[in-house]
Amino acid sequence: MMTFMRPAAALLTACLSFATPVSAQGFDGVVQLDILDGGRTANGTYLGALRLTLKDGWKTYWRAPGDAGIPPQFDWGASGNVGDVAITWPAPEVFDQNGLQSIGYANQLVLPVEITPKNPTKPVRLRGEMDLGVCKDVCIPERLDFDHTLDADAARNPAIAAAFAQRPYSAREARVAKASCHLTPTADGMQIEARVTMPSAGGREVAVIEPGNPALWASRPDTERHGDTLIARSEIINASGAPFVLDRSEIRITVLGAKHAVDIQGCSAG
Fold it and tell me: In what residue span(s) does the Thiol:disulfide interchange protein DsbD N-terminal domain sit (predicted)?
């Protein structure tokens, strides 16, 4: 059976133990944010990373957090000389607790960012806020400030390199032969059945479907494998309840396995 939680219900579940938000400082320093330097690349971009260090047993969430997680959000607006910011997400873990499934990271997350400067002759200053959720026995929303001028001459950073190495495989690297999506209208929105032909990612495989449109929300997929084909079924709705069109080229399918994760961009009609 598909599990779906609308955004408001998810946030309520995540924060039900608190009547008002609790800051990191107010909850005994649950999480600390540092900016790591990775130097400048050959094409003129800057490498850096947001490093979140959590107290033992605490976890935070991936960009698609699961049934009741809080997706992280970033505000780079106060930064200086920042043109574009590209984030590379390391493959997350799947957590099952009290019948709910969440997706994220335990104890520490190093999140690489590659910054394209507006003016290549001037320094890059990362300044802004990160909103996130952290959980242990309870879940709390956090807002963390950062302010750091990146070091163009910094050496290669092993922590950033390790985080890049933990990214999901691309469809080509994972030998994905085909990815198709069959769409069927439902009373609330659209059912999607994704069929991915690829070798196993190892052990229990969990599929995550992202519609590609921030106004749309997808239920937790039912995932099963038949030979070389992984099948994931989910329901997608518009949070406003309005009709919508689903663009298959924007659909993102991530398969999380015991050996590795796979990131698949777009799917064909099926």
Answer: 48-146
User: Which tokens is 110 given?
Assistant: 């190093």
| Over residues 68-84, mean pLDDT | 94
In the predicted model, what is the mean pLDDT of residues 154-180?
98
The reply to whether 169-269 shares the fold of 7-165 is yes
Q: Does domain 7-165 have CATH number 2.60.40.1250?
A: yes
**Cβ neighbours for 16, distance < 8 A, ≥ 6 positions apart:** none
Question: Tokens 């033992």 map to which residue?
Answer: 56
pLDDT at 267: 98
Q: Which two tokens stand for residue 198?
A: 């690829």
The fold adopted by the segment(s) 169-269 is Immunoglobulin-like (2.60.40)
Delimit the domains of the chain by residue range: 7-165, 169-269
pTM above 0.85, yes or no: yes
Burial of 28 (0-12, 13-18, 19+ CB in 10 A): exposed
Place of tokens 């950062």: 146
Q: Which residues contact 103 (CB under 8 A, 6 or more apart)?
A: 61, 62, 64, 65, 66, 69, 92, 93, 94, 95, 206, 208, 256
Q: Summarize the confidence of residues 7-27 as an average pLDDT.
A: 37
Q: Is 171 helix (H, G, I), strand (E, B) or coil?
A: coil
Measure the CA–CA gap between 14 and 124, rounded to whole angstroms: 35
- pLDDT interval class at 254 (50, 70, 90): very high
Query: Would you say residue 103 has pLDDT above 60?
Result: yes
Residue type, 70: I
Angle at 258 between CA 201 and CA 7, to 5 degrees: 90
Please provide the size of the chain in residues. Answer: 270
CA dihedral 20, 26, 28, 31 (to 10 degrees): 80
